[in-house]
Target: Ferredoxin
Amino acid sequence: MPLVTFSSPDYKDKTVYAVAGSHTETILKLAKEYKVPLHHDCQDGECGNCLVRVTSVDRKGRMSGFLTDKERSVLVELGKLTKDDIDRIAVDDMPSEWRLACQMIVRDEDILVEY
Ligand code: FES
Model:
């Protein structure tokens, strides 16, 4: 079961450790389940309010799925992804560290989610 650590500089005393129970849960769904105050609005990958930074806790290669076209567009609009980043992600076969919590599905890896 993947361990997801939610952390925010605004809530330093409220680091939340969550365990994803299935491979269909998004970070946002897990955050809601554990009452993590992660900003969100549309829940459909369009507003960008649920922007999070995701890193691997155990420093293994990241797995967590790849960006959808919609997610990629929003991350570019938010200035979190450049053309070079998009090219590098494709070449290195690695996901972006910036993600939309409503779009990223938790895989079988331990991750830190900064919101
Ligand atoms: Fe709008 Fe995730 S809640 S993009």
Summary: The chain has one domain: 3-114.
